[in-house]
Amino acid sequence: MKTIRYILASFLVVMFLYGCDQGIDGITQVDPGADASAPQVTINFPLEGTTIKVLEAITSITVDFEVTDDIEVAKIDALLDGKNIGSLNSFKDYRRVLIDDITYDNLADGDHQFTVNATDIDGKTTSVTVNFIKEPAYVPLYAGEILYMPFNGDNFDLVGLRPATKVGSPGFLGEGFVGLDAYAGAADSHLELATENMLSDEFSAVFWYKVNADPNRAGILVIGPPDTERVGFPETQNLRTSGFRFFREDAGGEQRFKLNVGRGDGESWFDGGDAADIPADAGWTHIAFTITQSRATVYINGEIVSQGDFTGVDWTDCDLLSIMSGAPRFTQWGHLSDLSNMDELRMFNRELSQGEIQNIMTTEAGGFVGTFEGEMFYMPFEGDNTEMFKDIEATAVGTPSFAGESAAGSDAYAGAADSYLTFPTNGLTTEEFSATMWYKLNADPDRAGILVMGPPDTERAEYPDIQNLRTNGFRFFREAGGDGQVFKLNVGNGTGDSWFDGGATASIPSDTTDWVHLAFTISSTEWSSI
């Protein structure tokens, strides 16, 4: 057998040598042609606008790029902020070079530039630069803050330094209430995060929200357990004895916001009724809720819309947070993906007070903070009709204008015939209420409304231009009396109305040309005006 193998091997060698000499053409050099184009450079990481978020003040970055050329790449230089971090001039493939292993270990906070310079054998050079940022590590702004998602083009939790898992195709609005962007919901889409290190006896969440009422119900924030009793129907989940479910439902064309909390032996509902409704066209609204071992509270624009006592939250098997959908743990009643917008989501391991919630709201709303305790509305009329706390322009009816002078500042509101401003009352209807203003009288016409917060008069449906339902809200106005204008206040108490007419002491002469300071206050027991 050995002899046969040796003979066979010798025969193959001979045949190979014969074939090389007789059966195959010799290798011929081919002219590659002219080097017509400069190298092409593609940077895969970092990309233009990349934001690097880590806890460390100094970190490392590994760059990734590709260089191609029609003939041959001769040299590549990689530069970070002008400093060469890698030079290459020898490649396995001279026409297509893939680099993903150059690491820089001293990246500090701030703005950075990464540049790739590529040169071919003909001396033609291409340079491509991208700008990126290493953000300073986020330091929680508030005590007990355990999650912060600003949604500025990503779904990153800056406290936990982790991205949320995308389910479906949630997107971004392209603008934010705060910052550059906000979450934009999509059908069959939401975000998920593990709840590790998030659950405690006390819990709070605050965020800005712009409602899209289609679909007419949706989940917003849910931390709940899997419904193992419905194992045969995994898509129908609704175990409510632990965790919480914050969601919305249609309420006569508006959206009503509700909180359900599991307490271990059962569940508790916090439904504020009409007080917890938001119109479909309300724009950005601030929403918050808090949970302790004795009560839960829901806030809209800093005001309590639902509150009640209960025995505390139970967190059994609550390992998953769903953002902007009830799925996958709260689906039986159709509270699925929310196509609304969300911005500035924060969560806390403690109960926030109402004052803290209002402080977060006003700070994020353009950074304006009132001068006085309890201040919630301020319009300086400095050439526009913007309310400073919410940074919202009042709606002008008719053609109101500006005076070109002011008691304070540089301008003031100037009235005109058939003209006035309107503004939504979200967050303004508190048990105690005060208003102050500077006022320069024009006694023609001899009566006028000044500030009115009242309900529509549905009993006068056949006369929509004659509205006078006074059982709710207030009406601050003036009327001719003697030689001047008398300023009066009417306040509704639910079942009727109360009049506060100071007579001559509340009068201003009709020919007054000076600015006059006016104010009134309303509490649950008394009123006063100046």
Offer a few descriptive terms.
single chain, 530 residues, mainly beta, Immunoglobulin-like, Jelly Rolls, 3 domains, 8-stranded antiparallel beta sheet, 2 helices, globular, disordered N terminus
Describe the fold and architecture.
By secondary structure, this protein is mostly beta strands. It folds into 3 domains: 40-135, Immunoglobulin-like, CATH 2.60.40.10; 145-364, Jelly Rolls; 386-529, no CATH class. It is 6% helix and 42% strand.
Distance between the termini: 123 Å
The name of the CATH architecture of the largest domain is Sandwich
Amount of beta strand: 35-45%
Number of domains: 3
- Residue windows where pLDDT falls under 50 for at least 5 positions: 1-21
Examine the coordinates and then state which fold CATH places here, giving the name of the CATH topology of the largest domain.
Answer: Jelly Rolls
Largest sheet: 8 strands, antiparallel
The CATH class of the largest domain turns out to be: Mainly Beta
Q: What do the pLDDT scores average to?
A: 89
Measured as a percent range, the helix fraction is: under 10%
Number of helices: 2
How many DSSP-defined strands? Answer: 40
Q: Over all CA atoms, what is the radius of gyration?
A: 35 Å
Shape: globular
Query: Which structural class do the helices and strands define?
Result: mainly beta
